[in-house]
Amino acid sequence: MKNKILVISAFLLTVLVSGGCDMFRSLAGRPTSADIEAMRVELAAREAAEAARRDSLERAAREAEAEAARIAAALDTLGSMKGFLRTPARLGGLAKGSEPSSKYCIVIGSYLDRANALKYSEKLTADGFPSEAVSFRNGFTTVGVCPTDNPADLLASLRRVRQQKFCPKEVWILLNE
Question: Domains of the chain (ranges plus CATH)?
């Protein structure tokens, strides 16, 4: 009888040692150590993804603040250029169907013959400077380069355009309000 108890005890001890807590956990419907490790890895991956998302949002917020500061500085600079900015109303108004594509445009030429303005605009576009021809009711058609809605981009383009051979001294900015 003692041998039976000894054999059963040895068997139970072997089962306990080889199965350990995971056996009892699985019998109780609880997660095993492998399940817990998988959950830990999944949680670490989620936390890493969340940290990356937060970092991305913070970076985007910093970039937006920097862009807002750049635009504010550009608007201040444009505000100090009173005679340098001209509106369509100041030039007699836009001709029908000649709406500029953007709020700002660097005007580098003005022509009485619209065909000449269009030809020059096409040449500038081919040379890598986006351009457009804008007609006014006074009969003139202007050629503007680097149209944009962003005043900071406008000032950067103005610096670049002023370094080009095609840029005249009388360059000005069309402000399409």
Answer: 2-63 (no CATH), 84-175 (3.30.70.1070)
